[in-house]
Specification:
By secondary structure, this protein is mainly alpha-helical. The protein is about 85% helix and about 0% strand.
C-alpha cells in the first residue's frame, strides 16, 4: 500500500531520470563518435585542436537540455523539498509524458549529431577554411533537440 501513496512522486522522478539519462546517453555517444574523429585529426595536425574540439562538444548539448528539464520538473513538482505525498498518479504520469520529448530526441539527435560532427571534423581536416560551413551540418541536427526541449518546457510549465 505504501508504494501507491508515493507512486506519483516515483513517476515524477522516473520522468526526470529519463530526461537526464537518455539525453545524456545521446550526448555521450555523440561526443564519443566526434571525439574519435577529433583525436585523429589532432594527431595529424595539433594546430586544428581548437576547431575540432568545438565540433566534438556540439553533441553535448542534449545532455544539458535533459538536465534542464529534470531540474525544472523536480523543482515544479516540489520533489526537491521532499513533498512526495501531494503528487498524484495522474500528475506523475503527465510528468513522464512531458519529459519524453527531450529524453527520446536527446538520445537520437545526440548520436546523429556526433556522426554529423565527425563528418564535419573530416571536412575541417582537409579544408580548414571551410570551418564555418562545416559547423552547419551538426547545427541542423541540433534544431530537433531544441524543438524537443521547447515542447518539454511548454508541457512542464502547464503541469
Amino acid at each position: 500500500m505504501e508504494i501507491m501513496n508515493n507512486l506519483g512522486g516515483a513517476l515524477v522522478i522516473l520522468g526526470a531520470a529519463l530526461a537526464v539519462g537518455l539525453a545524456g546517453c545521446g550526448s555521450a555517444r555523440g561526443c564519443g563518435i566526434a571525439g574519435q574523429a577529433a583525436a585523429g585529426v589532432t594527431a595529424e595536425d595539433p594546430a586544428k585542436f581548437t576547431r575540432v574540439l568545438i565540433m566534438e562538444l556540439l553533441p553535448g548539448t542534449q545532455g544539458i537540455y535533459g538536465l534542464l528539464i529534470a531540474f525544472l520538473v523536480l523543482s515544479r513538482m516540489n520533489v526537491l523539498s521532499g513533498d512526495f505525498a501531494s503528487i498524484t498518479i495522474q500528475a506523475g504520469a503527465e510528468t513522464v509524458a512531458a519529459c519524453l520529448p527531450i529524453a527520446v530526441a536527446g538520445l537520437v539527435s545526440g548520436t546523429f549529431q556526433g556522426k554529423a560532427s565527425a563528418a564535419s571534423i573530416g571536412l575541417v581536416a582537409k579544408r580548414p577554411d571551410q570551418f564555418a560551413k562545416a559547423m552547419l551540418f551538426p547545427a541542423m541536427v541540433e534544431t530537433y533537440a531544441i524543438l524537443s526541449l521547447l515542447v518539454s518546457i511548454l508541457v512542464v510549465i502547464k503541469l
